[in-house]
Please model this.
Amino acid sequence: MSGGKVEVLWSPTDDNTFITCGSAINLYQVETSAAHHKHPETTLRISDDKYAVHCAANSEIHFIKCAAWYPKAEPKNLLAVGQANGRVVLTRYYQMSDKISLPSVHDMFVLRLLSIAETVVFVVKTVRESFGDPGDDELIGKEFVPRHSRQCNFLAWNPEESHLLTEGLEKFRNDACIVIWDITSSHMTSDNSERSRYSSSEHGSVTRPCFEIGPGDTCSSFAWFPQDARTFVTGVNNRYLRVYDLRDTVKPRLVTPHRTVCGVCVDALDSRRLASFGESQVAVWDVRSFDRPILTFQESKPVAKISWCLTRPGMLCVLCKESPSIRLYDIRHAVIVIIRDSTLFQARPGMLSVLCKESPSIRLYDIRHAVIGSDDIEPVTIDRNVQPCGQNPLSSFAWHPRHENRLLAIVSPNQMRDMVIFERMPLAWSPQFNLTWANGKRTMNCVFGGPFDKLDISARMRQRALAGYGMQAENILHNALIVAEEKHLQGLWKWISLVRQCQRKPAPSSKRGPVYNMGVKQILKYYTDQSNTMESDQAYVQWQPSDGVAFSIKHHYRSQERSLALALCGWIPDTNPTEFNIYLDNLTENGEVEKAAAIAIFTLKMKKALGILSSSAAGATNNGNPSLNAVAMALAGYNENSNTLWRRTCGTQRFQLSNPYLRAIFAFLACDTEFYADVLEETEMAVQDRVAFALTYLPDAKLKDYIEKLTDELVESGDLDGMLLTGLSSEGIDLLERYVDNTSDIQTAAITAVFSGTAQSSKDDRVQTWIYNYRMLLDQWALWHQRARFDNVMQMCEPGVQVPPQVYISCNYCGKSLNSSSRGFRLPDRMMFHNPFARTPQQQRHKISCCPSCRKALPRCSVCLGLLGTASNNASPGEHPSPKAGQPKLSPHQDWFSWCQTCRHGGHAGHITEWFREHVDCPVTGCTCRCMAIDSAEKAACS
Amino acid sequence: MFAAKSISADHKDLIHDVSYDFHGRRMATCSSDQTVKVWEQGDDGQWHCTASWKTHSGSVWRVTWAHPEFGQVLATCSFDRTAAVWEKEAGQNHWLKRTSLVDSRTSVTDVKFAPKHLGLQLATLQLSLLEPKQSAPSNVSSGGKVQIHEYSEVQRKWNKVETVVMVAEPVHDVCFAPNMGRSYHLLAIASKELSIISLKPLRKDPAAGGTGISKFEMRQVAVFDEHESQVWRASWNVTGTILASSGADGFVRMWKANYLDNWKCISVLKGDGSTGEGPASIPQNSVTSGAPSSIPPNGAATNGSGSSVVSHEPPARSMNIKRNTGWPWMDIKKDQFKLFY
Model:
């Protein structure tokens, strides 16, 4: 092609073969493996994982104007090459044997370039094989020569009658501009059998075309209609678009004057749709209303090539001259609107691609969504602008004939790019952590593997719910066990369980039943009482001497509130030595040796502390940490004199210790002031222990300052340990909100609110939102049982609030509720709750077979025909394991009333379940209701 | 880490939307082949197509599920200028068209059900065309900006409360994260970049009462240009903690914030399902956009508290579907133009 233009053509039959056609024709094979690096000179990387292997080339070909690839599979790889003088020659290369891998093939192949007059045929031939099938080879080297030599503009094979080859020519006097050759026609030479492939062109040339169309015209573009093989559209004389039928080549079937006569192409997937361009204007046509284009749009530069996408209907691809990008337009929806009201909308857009001349880009337009007025066409919006090769102006591009949205763009034979245009991928998350996205016409589903629960709170919340997190109203610490791996939740659960413990004991402050939302600040009355006049007694506490050495007396502060708050912190006061010792022993056994030692020191029991440390240093409980021995030794050397070396060493060396409690011990002992700032600011120490220490050692004013400051810090950081201080006050809700903001863990927030017993009575919107959202989340995951248990816990934690019953059973006759215990009729109650002292529950179960108020019989079960409310006869005791004594249970589910919401027939739940295990229809004779089919939830459960 | 499994959707043309129902057990896809397919997950975890029917006479842009409280209800919108509501016939796999909203004069590009607490309301989005009289003033398509509207109970209308000024490029998708009781809303905007905006409602003055327009403190939490070009779609997971986005580079990426609110990419998946190591390594590859796309962003509305349900446009037509009992109220005067059956 002139001007260094390079055309690129995919093989119509072979997925991985293409040619480039410039001053020479090059054959490439696309390979995905990178094994061809040993031939770097012949391998070209065209995408991330694809390489074009150069298989054959010819640089001796001159004056090539265009090439066309034979559209059918057999004979394979036949090419028609058009030349500047109008001659057309058929060439072919041989398909390489599939058995041989490509590099070796490359070595084995010899490239034979055959010059036949001006035309050049290139043939790839294996060494072993002969030159090929003689039947196919008849075509090789065949030449078609128009009457007068002039430039060939294009070549086009007929897609159906593939022996027809069209050649478009420049104007020459009165000659036809469109010449259609029949490649099988035998009138080319007088003697076919004598013809040799290697003979001169005179023998192989055909001069008599099959059809000649358009005398005296010049033809610039041509396209067959793929669905109607005898018709074609052509742009002639730079003025007209004409549609011809081969059955009448004299007169065009349709003709319309328009400037856009170049590059006419038919949408392979909808042959009524055409596109053409002229200069910088692109027009889209519908053959059904051919007098004017359904859509025109202006490019900023002259257009070099347009092409319909071969796999997606209505996608037109436009490349402008000197442009680095290809534009894609989606034309499809144009047609729909035009059919409906062509007057109102001139066009509706779709997707189309534009390649401007000498431009590095192909633009992809989505015209579908363009806003187009009645007559004036607003600027069409570009859907895509594909710029495959940087800023280098593209020469041409080609859609892959079969692979979806695969595009090969070429700048020069040395620079090509194979790419896939990605469609918009809609995507959606499912609540079950699946991410699904659609890719073209397929749906991809992404199922998560891997440790997703570690990754995101959503999965972790679901797992916790499945493990029963927040559903253990009695055994509080079980909840903490479920989240044992999450350290930040441990403090919270400790607080919840300690609040429970404190409230279980008769507390003097709570006269209105248990209050579960207490924090230290509530106990110290910081919220209620602004002018806090808490007066604590100063107590002077002696060191318990370890070996007779008497240290100075320390101040402890005590009050009722303080000891309550200390209990909330989990500290057992040393007023009761046995309890205290058990407490410390428990801590030691649980591995919290340092904490036990620290508490012993804080309560001025040096000997106890030393004992704890040395015993666990030797024992296996702490993995025999020998450094504790050293700590014990250091402690033993404690000297109260403020200027001793011990103290100074302590002050500096304690930061080397890794355990915060050990640091706190030394900070406490080395502390000069009365206010123990070093201990209180030991931030790695648990909040409860710091608070407990402050409660013991700080005077009232200092204590308040410290607690306020600590609260602010914890609220600010959303640290759930701060719940100990705030309780579920409004400050505590702020803290929870902060925590939710940081972690999105509404599960814990909702459960905290529930366990604090203020879930339903709280006026704060935030609490209600958390609970609402958490329940909705459980709904969304279809964790119905968990949701019900959560609701139960909510009910149990807040005894003041009554949930009204949601289902009533009323008598058909008198309309009274069957469960009403009116007029002393107590049977329903007994039916509901088994007497725990009864020897056998079966005996005690009362039968009610009639309405308690009007004494009319209850309806009958449609399966066993017994009266409802009656214990079914054939139900053996084994089937109904009686609830354990002391656990009041509802009557077994099997005996419940159940009915179809549509036909109102029903019976004992057990019988009904049994019936519908095998049937779909209603058990009542004559009822046509397909109860089971209606109940989609049941169906889903059964299927 | 994440393995993608391919399902053959068997649509004859491009799939435009995928939507899960409330429980994630059903999935609906819509396509340019004018059909909607409903998929159900079997016990084996496989998805089976249980219904496929022609819904419109044009490309179906979006499909969305109503809350299951209202039954099995789907809404679709299409290029054929209608939006339709479908309900599954009890006990069968037929989906019946319950209503068709025909008063758009252009392609209806998006449809969304309101959050459950607002009842069965539907918001539709259409292209503002020749007569901008029925769509919102100066719509999103013009400047590609994102506007946030809030429904006022007192005035019974939608007020524009904020304009997101951080995003100037054409917007392809917006998506609110499920709020979950956080004190702020997260809004993902798919434009040339993917941006995440945090909207923190400033506490209302108690004196102003419920009439005041709520103010938001807007903060751009993160901007990502890893998609290298247009970002088409964005979607939040169930807790609003992981954001997934798809872009013109053919990759699906997942984003997540750490404890310090730093958003990071946690996974890159290739659009065709294979696990991608990353985007194209050949530096020449770039896909750029030209003129502004005319797909206006679609309004999304999610909010737990109900105080600030947000959409890009006041719903052109709200709809109440009235059934026997228990359905949202009808106000004769206000709702007389609404469709019902």
Q: What stands out?
A: Chain A has 29 helices and 40 strands. Chain A touches chain B through 94 residues (CB under 8 Å). Chain A has a mean pLDDT of 71.
